Amino acid sequence: MLARSKNNGAAGDLCDFGGGRSESEENVRHEMEKPRGGDGAKGAVGNGVVAGDASAKRRGCCWSIMMFLLGLFFVAVATGFSLLWIYTGGRLDQRSVERALPVIRRDVDAAFLTVGEKAEDFYKDGSETLGPYVKKAQEQGGN
């Protein structure tokens, strides 16, 4: 049920009475709605997820914690190696490493001390601000 519009057959003037879309637009729209699960042999679900895909399975809490700790371990090892590389100037011989380790330890201790002091100040400011509210909540017994 295609009809010509009133502009005498100019390009792109074919339209149907149902929604104003040409056949090519309908084909593109139909292709976009197809699931991307491949040939469907595994049982396509849609949005690129296949029903038999291992990545679609849910993992437990222990798995998440282990992966987080593994990532934290790799970050710590990489940070340690980069600090060693920077403090030795790229020379990883025994003498350079032995001279750099006390300096690295001193600087890391100073950085942790600074962070600890800032956390203590933050805690004191927070306890001064929230102190009356906490006392009031304790007196009321949580009611």
SSE blueprint and pairings:
Layout: E1 2-4, E2 14-16, H1 23-32, E3 44-46, E4 49-50, H2 61-88, H3 94-140
Antiparallel strand pairs: 1-2, 3-4
Helix pairs in contact: 2-3
Distance N to C terminus: 71 Å
Helix content: 55-70%
Strand order of the largest sheet: 1-2
Extended strand count: 4
**How would you characterize the largest beta sheet?**
2 strands, antiparallel
**Number of alpha- plus pi-helical segments:** 3
Helix/strand order, N-terminal first: EEHEEHH
Detail the poorly predicted runs.
Answer: none
Round the Cα radius of gyration to an integer and report it. Answer: 33 Å
Query: Mean pLDDT, nearest integer?
Result: 78
Inertia-based shape: flat
| Beta fraction | 5-15%
Task: Specify the structural class.
Answer: mainly alpha
